[in-house]
Amino acid sequence: MATGINRQVLLKSRPDGAPGLDNFELVESPVPEPGDGEVLMRTRYLSLDPYMRGRMSAAKSYAKPVEIGEPMVGGTVGEIVASRNARFAVGDIVTGFGGWQDYALSGGAGLRKLDPAAAPVTAALGVLGMPGMTAYTGLLEIGQPKAGETVAVAAASGAVGSVVGQIAKIKGCRAVGIAGGPDKCRHVVEELGFDACIDHRAPDLARQLEVACPAGIDVYFENVGGAVQQAVWPLLNDFARIPVCGLIAQYNAAQPMPGPDMFSVLRKRLTLRGFIVTDFAAKQADFLRDAGAWVRGGRLKYREDVVEGLENAPAAFLGLLQGKNFGKLLVKVA
Amino acid sequence: MATGINRQVLLKSRPDGAPGLDNFELVESPVPEPGDGEVLMRTRYLSLDPYMRGRMSAAKSYAKPVEIGEPMVGGTVGEIVASRNARFAVGDIVTGFGGWQDYALSGGAGLRKLDPAAAPVTAALGVLGMPGMTAYTGLLEIGQPKAGETVAVAAASGAVGSVVGQIAKIKGCRAVGIAGGPDKCRHVVEELGFDACIDHRAPDLARQLEVACPAGIDVYFENVGGAVQQAVWPLLNDFARIPVCGLIAQYNAAQPMPGPDMFSVLRKRLTLRGFIVTDFAAKQADFLRDAGAWVRGGRLKYREDVVEGLENAPAAFLGLLQGKNFGKLLVKVA
Are A261 and B263 a contacting pair at CB < 8 A? Predict the structure, then answer.
């Protein structure tokens, strides 16, 4: 049995607009003991992802909000340190939703064992985990990119966008990224192999994007909204597909921003479709097979931005919402 | 050979906002003679449809605009009065795009022969023509209604909306219409068999629609936009489908209206897809088979609003844009 202290980051209050450090609270409690059928996981890595902003709000959504006083939700990689479940042994490395805490109990249903010899375990929180599968399913199931088409994606150095563009390249498309600043743009082109990457802070974003997309845009993987969406919209080709995955640029807006004009949807015969990764749960085996092979073959690269210490998770998360991370944002908890 | 005068309604100028009678001009010219391979059609009926508003504008769209000084485009039913094409004989009744004129030449490519014994020939401009096929393909291909779901459609007494709701009923759905005024609403429920119909002029439209859709809305066939769209949006269920067919309430707006907020697209996993009927040209045989059988079986009813005289086409068309017609709007030309 583990003994000692379980640090937890709780949702202390709901943000009104942009969240701040005062919305979180770090508390300590005794490490819990697993009941019959349960395991106790020691968190090694915590994943920080944009969807968490939604869970901080009480607004109706596809998932229930985190309640005030509850630990923040989050994907984790952990080690089994106590087990009363025959499927898991002490020492197993697993991924699941342990949340923002040192230790988590689980009945085992949401846990998946990892093979540390097959890939670095942190990949299970990024390129081989929820963000990677979000990119894979949204791009392939909704975007349906065909060789020779142009795929545009924002947050192109991030956990989802980086995979979108690389899979687009694997499928024979032109991949055009949008990212924040010259370092990220350089990484996206030179390391990840995108054909072009535009700095979204550029005053002539729309013009640069037009130059980078000489044949227009056939798939726009929407994960930011806002100004990038506005720059992309006039470049969409007839029959373009827009998987709507996220709107990080709009998450803190007090009022919903108006959507793109419907005339273009009609005239260009656009398809917009919102999704979350769990809608495509049936594709997980395909994803793990394909993405695993691409990672091993060097065709799918990833970069991690690792912050040390659970106590730094709130600040790191606030930075994520402002695009301050560079690569998949993880917290090394232990 | 026909001799005499060909009256034509030309586009005289492009509207700035709502079109007026002064945008049209009625002119007379000699009846043309068919060249080799051509036929001359005498127009019997001219169809008036909302899409014509788009053709009056120079804005880029899926079809090229009517040029100033050209006859307005339009679907027609006509009689072959001279033929130098082996496929057509004098006396054949055909449907095609003859335009707003007494006589039209055709090479035959866009013409389809009608059997007046099978159905009234005017049906080829409505329930068994472009509007009916628009409803059929948009609802079934994009809307994908499942038995027990709720389908909502505006302009429910019109050429497209009336077919949408009746096919929804055939497929086992709850059909909820929105229409302009108590007479149309009564017709939609009592004659066409919708489960409910709301007057879009009602000050409490949103509340009435909510009452009429106790299980929310799974398919919203979008053909009006504007206030109806705003009333529908909060009622959409998760995974709702929105075939975007038209935006008649917005056609005269000088500025594009903002679209619905993208958060709902994301959170509810909505699918919006713009289309025009020609995108589904491959479905024409299915449509004619199914809709023909439904009409003969009394399961698909239609109402026509027939205006006499080509010279009255412009005023009738302006009325269509204001919802003044009641049923499929046709001009009896001869």
Answer: no
Checking DSSP bridges between strand B39-47 and strand B103-106, what pairing results, if any? antiparallel
Class of domain B130-279: alpha beta
Q: Pick the residue of A237, A272, A276 with the most B CBs within 10 A to test the interface with B by mutation.
A: A272
- Report the C-alpha gap between A164 and A144 in whole angstroms: 12
The domains of chain B are located at 5-126+303-332, 130-279
CATH of domain A5-124+303-332: 3.90.180.10
Query: Could you tell me the pTM of the whole model?
Result: 0.90
- B279 vs A contacts (CB less than 8 Å): 269
The answer to which of A195-199, B142-146, B248-252 has the lowest mean pLDDT is B248-252
pLDDT, chain B, mean: 94
CA dihedral over A34, A37, A41, A47, signed as positive or negative:
negative
The answer to whether residue A29 neighbours chain B at the CB level (below 8 Å) is no
CB B77 within 8 A of CB B95: yes
Q: Which of B301, B306, B305, B322 is nearest to B200 (CA)?
A: B322
Tens digit of pLDDT for each residue in B222-278? 998 888 999 999 999 999 999 999 887 776 666 667 778 888 999 999 999 999 999
Q: What is the mean pLDDT of the segment spanning A320-330?
A: 92
Mean pLDDT of A283-303: 96
The 10s digit of each residue's pLDDT in B62-109 is 778 999 999 999 999 999 999 999 999 999 999 999 999 999 999 999
Q: Are B239 and B263 in contact (CB under 8 A)?
A: no
Residue type for position B306: V
Q: Are residues A4 and A334 in contact, defined by beta-carbon separation less than 8 angstroms?
A: no
With contacts defined as CB-CB under 8 Å, which chain A residues touch B61? 267
Residue A239, classified by CB atoms within 10 Å of its CB into exposed (0-12), middle (13-18) or buried (19+), is middle
Q: Are A101 and A8 in contact (CB under 8 A)?
A: yes
CA distance B88 to chain A (A): 35
Q: Does A288 touch chain B (CB under 8 A)?
A: no
Please report which residue ranges of A139-261 form alpha helices under DSSP H. Answer: 161-170, 182-186, 205-212, 226-232
Give the distance, in angstroms, between the CA of residue B145 and the centroid of all CA atoms in the same chain: 21
Which of 219-258 (A) contact B at CB < 8 A? 222, 225, 229, 238, 244-247, 250, 256-258
**CB-based contact B170:B196 (threshold 8 Å):** no
Nearest to A269 among B229, B266, B275 (CB): B275
What was the pLDDT predicted at B328?
94
Quick one: CATH architecture of B5-126+303-332?
Answer: Alpha-Beta Complex (3.90)
Does B1 have pLDDT greater than 50? no
Q: Who's near A108: CB < 8 A, 6+ residues apart?
A: A37, A38, A39, A85, A87, A88
CA distance A318 to A322: 7
